[in-house]
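Forum: Protein Structure Q&A
Topic: Joint prediction for protein chains with partners

I've read a bunch of threads here and the consensus seems to be that you should model interacting components together rather than docking separate models afterwards. I'd like to see that in practice. Below is the full input, 992 residues plus whatever partners are listed. Could one of the regulars post the assembled result?
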Amino acid sequence: MRLNRSILLVLLVGIVSSIAIIYFYLIQREFTKNHREFLTSTSKLKHSQSRLDYLILENSVYAYQNQDKIKNRIKKLLNEYKNLKESTILKDKTYTQIDEKIIALKEKIDSNLENIEDYLMFNAGIKNSLLFLTRHVENSELSKIDDNNIVIKANYILKHFYDTKRIQDLDYLENESFLLISDSKDKKVQEFVRKFNIHSKFLAKGFKKYINSVNSVLDNNVYNSIVSITTDFSKIALKDFKALDIFAFILFSIFILSLSFIIFLLYSYIQKNQALKHSLTYDQLTNLYNRKSLEYKLTHISKPTLLLINIDGFKNINDIYGNEVGDSLLIKIAQMLKKELTNLNIFRLGGDEFGTIFEDITENEVLKIANKLEKTISKHNFIFDNLKLNISVSIVTNNIFPILENADLTLKLLKHNPNKRVMKYTDNLNLKKSVQENMQIVEMIKSAIADDRVIPYFQPIINLQTSKIEKYEALVRIRLEDGTILSPFKFLEISKKSSDYHEITKIMINKIIQTAKEFPEYRFSLNISMLDILNEQLITMLFDCFEKNRDTVSRVDIELLESEFLEDTKKVQEFIEKLHSYGSKILIDDFGSGYSNFSYFSNLEIDIVKIDGSIVSEIINDHTKLHILKTIHQFTNGMNKTNIAEYVENREIALILKEIGIKYAQGYYFSQPLPRPLNDSKVII
Amino acid sequence: MFKLFIFISIIINLYANEPISPIPLKSGIDVEKAKLGRMLFFDTTLSKDNSTACVSCHNVFQGGADSNIVSKGFNGMSGNIQSPTVLNARYNFKQFWNGRVDTLSQQVDGPIHNPVEHNLNSELLEKRLNASKLYKKLFLNIYKKFDIKYKDAVDAIVEFEKGLITPNSKFDKYLRGEIKLTKNEKNGYRLFKQYGCITCHNGINVGSNSFQKMGTFVEYKSKNSYPDKEAITHKKIHHNVFKVPTLRNINLTAPYFHDGAAKTLKEAINMMAKHNLGVELSDKEIADLTLFLITLEGEKPTILESN
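Posted by a regular:
Agreed with the consensus. Here's the joint model:
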C-alpha cells in the first residue's frame, strides 16, 4: 500500500515535472525566439540607419548620385522599423518601457527623414551652383581679353564656397563679399559677372539652409537611440533570462529530487523483493531453508537422500513451557544441526520437523549419520535460563521417490514405535498400502452403517465376591458381509476422521439401551473418550437417547476413556453431573496407565475405577505392579470408589484380586466379549 | 562560367555607377489579378455618376497622364492639379505631386473618394461591384470570396498599375550597352548631367525620388494655388515644393509641371533652366536635351495588350 502510494507520488511528480519541463521548454523557446527576433530587428534597423547615413555622405561628396539608393534604403528602414514595432516581445508588459521608446524612435526617424528630404532639396541647388560656377570660371575667356582681377576674385570666391562646404561652418562665410564688381563696359565681362553673381548670391543665401540641413541630418541620433534601446532591452531581458535560469534550476532540482526518489524507491523495492525472496526460500524463525526450498532441491538433484528429523513431543514442550521456549528450542536445534551437519543445507519443513539432503550417498552412511545425530541430540542438555531440557528426536532416511511423502509416512510409523528412533524407508513397510487400506476401511464403515452391521459385543464383569455377572462392558464391532467380526482398533480411529464416528456412537447407544431393556438384571457400560465430551453434537445426541429411555439408562454407565491431557474439566464435571441425574455411573477406564492420575478424583465425581490391564496382567511376576494395584485399591476404596480389574487372564490373578478385595474383574479367564449377554449370571472362579 | 560571372559583375558595377538605371523587362505581376485591375481601371462605375474612370485622367495609352491642364471629374468638376502619369508610378518614392502618401494603394483611395474626381465611397463601390455577375465571378476566382470587398478592388487596381511599366526605352537599351545614342542625344545627356538636371532627375524613374522647390533661383509664381508640400508640413521652406516628377515618357505627358504651365518640352526645359538652375540655354542645347529626353520613351506596358 505504501509502495503503491509512493509509485503514485513519483508518477505524479513525474507528470508534473514533465509538464513543467515542456512548459519551460516552450516558454524558453518562445522567449529566446522573441528575444532573437527583437535583436535581429534592431540590428537590421541599425544597419539600415548606418547605410542611410553613409548614402547621405556619399550624396554630399558626389556631384550627382542615383538617389534611388536613398529611396530604397528609406523604404527598407521603415519596413524594418515596422517589424521591430511589431516584435512579439513588446506585447509583454515587462517591455512596455521599450515599446514606448520605440514609439518615440519613430518620431526621430520621421524627423530625420524629413531632414533628409530637405537636405537633398538644398544640396541639389548648392551642388548645381558650385558646379556651374566652376565651369563658368573655367570656360570664361576673360583672362585672354582683359580683367584678370575679376577672374582672380571669382576664383577666390569659388574657393571660399568650396572651403565652406568642406568646413561646414557658416562663420567662414561671414563678413565676406561674394559679388563680383566690375566697371568694365565689355559685354562679355558684364555677362560673366552677371551670371556669376546670380549663383554666388544663391549660394551665399542658400548655404545657411544647406549647412543647417546637413547638421540636422548629421546630428540625427537615430542610430544612438537604437543602440540605447538595445542596451535597455538587454538589461530587462537579462532579468528575464535570470528568471528563466532560476526556473531551470528549480526544474533541475525537482528532476534530481525525483530521480533520487525513484532510485530510493527502486532500492527499497529491491530490498523488499529480496526480503520477500528470502521469506520464500528461508524459514523466518531459524533462518534455515524452508519446505519450498527442500521441494525444489529434491527435484534438482539426481540421487537425493532425505534425512527427516522430528522432535518428539514438541507440542507438549510448547504447551508446558510456552511458545517462547519452543521457538528457542527450534533455533537451538537448527544451530546444532548446522554444526553437526557441516557443508549441508539444513531445511525446516515446518513445525518441529527438520531435514537435510544428501547427494549420491550410500544407505549405510546415511544411517550412520542419522544414528549419531539422534544420540547427540538426545544427550544434549538444552538450557533456557534456569530450565534444562532433554529431548529425543525421530529420524527417518529415504532415497525412494516420492521422497518427502515416503519419509513423512515413515515418520508417522516411527512415532508409534517407542523403541526405535531411527528408521529407513523401504517399500516393505507397506505404508502406502495402509493408506489404501484406510480408504477401504472408510468404505467398509459406510456400508456397515448402511446395512446395520455395526453391533455391540458384551464382555461380562464379574463380582469376585459373589461369583456372579453383574455388568457388561459394551464394545463396538463391525460384522463384515462374510460374517467376520472386526475389532474397533481396525476402524474406530479412522471413523473419528469423519461423521461416521457420530453415527457409530448413536447406533451403539441405541443398541445398548435395547439390550439393557432385554436384560434388566445387568448393568451395561459404554466407552466414551473424554474428548467426545467436548463434542457438543455427540453429547446432545447421547442425552437425547437417555431422555427417551429414562427407566433403562439408570443401568447404563459410561466408561471415560482418557487419551489426552484434559484441560477443560468443567465440561466433564457438567457431563458427569448430568449423567448422575439419570442414575448412570461413571467409570474411569485404564487407570494406572497413560494420562490417568489421581487428580481426577478431586475434581470429578467418579464412581468406579477400572485398573489398567498392563498392571493387572503382571501382578503375579511383578511386585511393583502388585504394589501399584494395591495402592490404587486402597486409595480408591478410601474414597469409597469401586474397582474393576481388567485383563484377568487366569485363575491365579482372579484369586489374588479376590484376596486383595477388588470387587469386580473382567477378562478372557472369565469370558471374551460376546454377541449377547448370558442368561445365566453364575460363574465359577 | 567564371568568365560569365566576371562579365555579369562588371555589367552590374557599370549600372551601379550610372545615376539612371533601366526599368526591368518584367513586371513580375499576377496577370489575372492585373487584368481584373485593368477592368476596374477602365470602368466608369467606379465614379458616383458613372462618368469617370481612372483611365479618364490617366491615359495609359498616351503617357499615362491627362492632356488637360487639370482633369475633369465628377459632375464635370475640375481637379486642382495636373494629373501625374500612372506609368512607372510603382517606382515613385511617394505618390501625388506633394508626396502625401507612400504607396499605390493609398494613392488609389485618393481619387476614388475625392468629391471632384470619382466621388465614391467604399460601400457604394462594393455594392456596385457586387451587383455585377462578371465581377463576382472574377473576384471569386482571384480572392476566393463570394463578397467583393473594396480592399480587394484596390488591390487589383494596384496590381494593374504595377504592370504599367515602360521598359526598353532607347536610353535603357543604351544603358544596357545594347545600342548607341546619336551624337545629339548623347550631348543632350551630357548637358543633362553638366547643368545638374541629374541632381534631381536620377534613379530608375529619372526623378520621383526626392522633393524639390519649383523655383530655387527665380521664384515661381502660379496663377492659382496648388497643394504643395507646405500644405502638409506647414513649413515655409516647403512652399512650392513638389515631388520631382519622372522624366520617363516625358514627350507624351504634356502639359508639364503641377500647373501644366509648360505646353511643350522646350518650354518646360527653359522654365527649369531659368527657375531651378539659374542658367540660360542655347537653342542647340535645348534641342539636344529634348532629343535625350525623347530617348526615355519606353514600350507600352504589356498588360495593356494582353487579353
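The beta strands of chain B are 211-213, 241-243.
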